[in-house]
Amino acid sequence: SINDVEFISMGISAAQAALENGSVDAALLAGPAAYNAKQSGLHIVTTGKGVITPVIVTATSGEFYKKHKDVVEKFKKAQDEILDYIKANEDEALKFTAEETGLSIEAVNSMYPQYDFSSKITAEDIKALEATQEFMLESKMIEQKIDIKSLLLN
Questions:
Q1: What is the pTM of this model?
Q2: Which of 39, 71, 73, 77 has an alpha carbon within 20 to 30 A of 50's alpha carbon?
Q3: Is there a single domain that holds both residue 82 and residue 115?
């Protein structure tokens, strides 16, 4: 059970390093870190499949948004342009991703279908974020519930 482990909060890179150097017995990894861990012979104990649906969002504080709406809008526009470029130049984008992440092109090609690169937040995304929040509350990874919908830009 969750009571049988000591949870230490750390980012993915730190968790991967701690696992590799033996400072921890298990780590929560995702994306290239999880792929590389598996390739290096580490064992996957379990996944979040059936528990949570991963959703990655880009966020900023309300204070920053109020002061710098123009910067946020430029960022969103640039993100949409990049997504359009990826769609139009998929092979080149995947090759570039492999180079930048240090992964093989085979690894990038195998992981690419697992991701939804849309910049739009859907009703399913909100449900997934709410389910993840419930899981994190139950496992005491976070202490208080928030209204996820209230955080979204209209």
A1: 0.71
A2: 39
A3: yes
Residues 136 and 148 reside in one and the same domain = yes
* 73 and 28 within one domain: no
Give residues with Cβ within 8 angstroms of 4, minimum separation 6.
Answer: none
Q: What is the pLDDT along the chain (154 residues), one digit of tens a residue?
A: 778 888 888 999 999 999 999 999 999 998 888 988 888 899 999 888 888 888 888 889 989 999 999 999 999 999 999 999 999 999 999 999 999 988 999 999 999 998 888 888 999 999 999 999 998 898 888 999 999 998 887 5
Range of the domain at 16: 1-47
Q: Could you tell me if 14 and 67 lie in one domain?
A: no
